[in-house]
Structure formats: C-alpha cells, structure tokens
Please model this.
Amino acid sequence: GSFGFFEWRLASSDVYAESTLSNKTQTISDNIGIGLLSALGGTSGASSSNSSIAAVAHHSSGAIIVGGAFSISSPSTSNIAILKDGLLSAPANSGLNGPVTSLVIDGDKLFVGGSFSDTGSGSTSNALKNIVVYDVAQDSWSPLLGGLDGAVASLGFEDGQIQVAGNFTTVFTSSGSTTGESAPGFAVWNVTSSTWTNSGG
Model:
C-alpha cells in the first residue's frame, strides 16, 4: 500500500493501473508513499485524518520533498517530509505548523508556500507567515522578510523570481512588521536581491 505519491515509469509498457501493480513496477521514489502510509498508521490512519500531499519537489542530490497536510511521529514532522537514500526523513525543526500547498526549488533553496506561521517545533516565534525558504544542503529554515498576511495557493519560478499567488493582500517587507506593501493576491520575490518586488495583483 501507498499514500499520496506514485512514480509512473513512462518507459514501462506492461503497467496497467486498472489492476494491482506488481512489485517490479515500484521504484525507489515510490517509497515516499509507502513510508508515509506506514507513518500515518496504515490505511485507516491516512483516511481518517484527512491527510494529503499537495506538492512535490526534486533536489539535485536525489532527495524528493513532499508537502501537504499530514503529521507523522516517526520521523517527527508535520506537513513536509523528505525521501533521502530511500528513507523518509524530517526537515529541521519538525517541519511546519500548517498545511503546505506548493514547492519550488532553485539550487539548494526550496521555497515553500501554504498556511503556516512557524516550524513544527515553534523555533521561529511565528516569523514565517505563509512562505519560507528551506536550505536543503544546510537543513535550515529562513523567512522571506516578514512574509505574507494570508495563505499561499501556488508558487512559480521564472527569471530568478518566485511568483506567489494566494489569499493575501500585503507583503511584509521587514520581519515582525504588521504593515507592508499592497499585493492583492499576487507577489514576486527576487531571489538574487532577497526582496519583495511586487508588480501588482
């Protein structure tokens, strides 16, 4: 059994999803879904907790990161997990304290959007505000200045900029700020300068 993730091998001409798939169709990546199902307590645990996977990103090291709405005890993480060398692991500080909706990766920087305010362990004093960058190589979280005043629905990456869409109206240009620049539903983060460069909304 698996939960929320399946890698379909395009080169396989003998795989038919209408029936039970044999073990030979499984890949190392399929261990994400198998590991999550087990960590969530099997079929009953996964279905009764309304758990889900919403986004997937692949790092150049081979690590696969999944985000969504879930909480597991071993490894101890919430809403984001990593498959490294065939094993499920937790990012620093036990993940995030709210659902993840989108992931975009640029080198070692994983940009994470959703509806959260802190890491799972509460290590940032609620400084993350719905968007954060995770350094895959350093295993550390950093805020994007003061974040956003509402949930992120999707992220995109183009020309060195992270494009952010969601249910927000303001980007906070400094950490801890309660005021900022107007950005109704759309904001842009410049990766090189590490600043909000909103172009409208």
User: Anything to note?
Assistant: Helices lie at 31-39, 42-48. The longest strand covers residues 64-72.
